[in-house]
Amino acid sequence: MVSEEQRQKESRLHPRNRNRERYDIRALITTNPELAGYVTPNKLGEDSIDFSDPVAVKILNRSLLNHYYGIRHWDFPDENLCPPILGRADYIHHLADLLQESNFGTLPKGEDITCYDIGTGASCIYPIIGVAEYGWNFIASDVNPKSIDSATKIVLANPSLHGKIECKLQPNPTDIIFGIIGKEEQIDCTLCNPPFHASSDEALKGTRRKVKNLTGKKPTNPTLNFSGISDELIYEGGEAKFIDKMVKESRKFAKNAYWFSTLVSKQSNVKTIYKSLEKLEATRVKTIPMGTGNKATRIVAWTFLSKEERSAWAQTRWGKKE
What DSSP element (H or E) covers 98? Predict the structure, then answer.
């Protein structure tokens, strides 16, 4: 099993990611003493946690958010997906780079930027990191009322998030952008971590594989180390079907957003996404590689704005001249 130190040495994390170096477990315990009860020595005798234990993973992530991002209250039902902070932060940082490139080399921060987080989940993790790192505003949607209730409670419990994150229930579970973004509304970028399993059987196989990689053991009835309920993990047709629908809906909002983006966990889906975007006349498409250790993923981002429209967007919304 790869040790935490090896994992972080092999890291391809973004240069601005606060956790590029090995976790300072002692500092995290000082911030959140609750973590101490879950720390055990690894094979090298170093302080670590059992990454196959969902409770330990949740408490570690709570400690990271508190220590590095100033988030003192972060809780949600144990049945919901507990996101790994490192990868979620990387998505935000890569979006920041994309916006900087689009703004003639200057990173737009604060209220200049409004992002739409598609499927924010009970943890509200992307908006939290986006607010903490760059001061952006967020619209955070989800199809699950309980997840929206949980995300709202997190926002209300942390003063630094007040007025920065609007949590909205998606009224139609078959819609992705419709029902959330108004006809005249402007969004600087969207982000999404789509459900990537097509069925519960596929999700279970994925869980078994992940637990085996973490523990070296073959589990019969594994508990997913990052938890997750069905609407967070499963979509009929899987990741490919979800992103295809998102791409088609995005065309209807071509002038409402500068960048649309989504994570794509399966490399085999990228070619199909590009074909769909070409057919829908996207003016620019970009793939941004991401990953830690042996896990590789990517962001696919696209826009329908012409070069002139992109320039005008940057000048009028972000106040930057060429």
Answer: helix 85-102
Q: Any bridge partners for residue 264, and if so which?
A: 298
Which has the closest alpha carbon to 11: 87, 82, 88? 87
Residues 6+ apart with CB under 8 A from 209: none
Quote the CA–CA distance of 121 and 54 in Å, as a whole number.
17
How many angstroms separate the CA atoms of 221 and 48, rounded?
24
Q: What are phi and psi of 124, to 5 degrees?
A: 55, 35
Q: Which residue has the tokens 């990741």?
A: 239
> Could you give the CA distance from residue 221 to residue 223 in angstroms, rounded to a whole number?
7
Q: Are 91 and 299 in contact (CB under 8 A)?
A: yes
Which pTM value belongs to this model? Answer: 0.87
151-208, pLDDT tens digit by residue?
A: 999 999 999 999 999 999 999 999 999 999 999 999 999 999 998 544 455 444 544 4
State how far the Cα of 29 lies from the Cα of 60, in Å rounded to an integer. 9
Orientation angle between helical segments 54-69 and 125-134, nearest 10 degrees: 20
Contact 252, 177 (CB under 8 A): yes
- The strand pairing partners of 291, in sequence order, are 296
Strands 165-169, 137-142: parallel, antiparallel or unpaired by DSSP? parallel
Considering only CA atoms, which of 54, 57, 67, 65 is closest in space to residue 26?
A: 67
**Tokens representing 47?**
């302080």
Separation of alpha carbons 151 and 237, rounded Å: 27
- Amino acid identity, residue 28? L
Residue 238 is predicted with a pLDDT of: 85
Q: What is the mean pLDDT of residues 92-120?
A: 96
**In order of start, what are the domains of the chain with their CATH numbers?**
97-317 (3.40.50.150)
Cα 121 to chain center, whole Å?
10
Asked whether 299 and 287 are in contact (CB, 8 A), the reply is yes
Alpha carbons 247 and 260: distance in angstroms, whole number: 9
Number of H helices, E strands in the chain: 11, 9
